[in-house]
Design brief:
The protein is an alpha+beta fold. The chain contains six helices and four strands, in the order αααααβαβββ. The protein is elongated.
Length: 265
């Protein structure tokens, strides 16, 4: 026999709280995703990176602002968890788990849409990649992939009730996001001119030196097998050009197109 005597909210209030639990949790997860990945792991920007003030540009102030931002996301997440707890009995009804997931996707996408519009373009407190020569490209990429696409996937999943073809929309959208963002994130920060190059099996040292000379590079290191090399290309070097000289894989390029050479070996 159940001993849970906790008073439950009225059905109408529970019905209103359950969707917002998903929205708030997704919104908070969007903020955590942005802060952890872009502020801490990739270090592409801080919350106030574009604020032109010597006091604000102090790294201690930047880290403090990031911390306050994460604290705000904790408050939003706590609100979502509280609403989810209040409407916990509805979660057991058929299809409600998918509704929660759909609403979380919408909240996740809305976070990135609002961040793009407010932080990047209206307030101008930071951009996705502060060190990029074309920051608008990165802003739009993030806005579409993690904002519009994810929110649209959640909206379609919600409208289809989590069933049918709509149930496949969210995984497809997230897969596309990873496929697009993963290679883009592999691009190096400015000033990094050394690439790791994996050459085809049987490539000799003279062949490698000829390839390095063809791209005006300088060999820095090689592994004992003689296939993996570190090559300094200088500021004007083009790592993609190494694919024309026997490379199978070159780091610091947007797409590892040289991997297709495996089909010829």
């Amino acid at each position: 026999m159940s001993t849970d005597t906790t008073p439950l909210p009225s059905p109408a209030r529970a019905a209103a709280g359950f969707p917002w639990a998903g929205y708030l949790l997704g919104f908070a997860l969007g903020g955590f995703f942005d802060g952890i990945l872009l502020h801490q792991v990739l270090q592409w920007h801080h919350l106030l990176s574009a604020v032109e003030s010597s006091a604000v540009q102090d790294i201690r102030v930047q880290i403090l602002a990031d911390g306050l931002f994460h604290a705000a996301m904790y408050v939003v997440a706590a609100g979502g968890l509280w609403l989810l707890w209040r409407s916990r009995r509805r979660f057991a009804e058929p299809g409600e788990d998918r509704l929660l997931f759909a609403n979380a996707l919408i909240g996740f996408g809305v976070w990135h849409i609002l961040d793009g519009v407010l932080s990047h373009w209206l307030l101008g407190i930071h951009r996705i990649r502060m060190d990029s020569a074309n920051p608008l490209l990165w802003d739009l990429l993030w806005f579409v992939v993690f904002g519009v696409a994810v929110a649209a996937a959640g909206w379609r999943l919600r409208r289809n009730g989590g069933g049918g073809s709509g149930g496949r929309t969210a995984p497809v959208a997230l897969t596309l996001a990873v496929l697009i963002a993963g290679p883009v994130a592999a691009l190096p920060p400015p000033g990094v001119t050394t690439v790791m190059v994996l050459f085809q099996p049987g490539t000799t040292a003279p062949d490698v030196f000829a390839a390095v000379a063809a791209v005006d590079g300088r060999p820095v290191w090689q592994d004992p097998s003689g296939q993996l090399w570190a090559i300094d290309l200088g500021e004007e070097g083009n790592p993609t050009a190494l694919y024309r000289h026997g490379a199978l894989l070159v780091s610091n390029t947007l797409l590892p197109t040289g991997c297709l050479d495996w089909f010829r070996t």
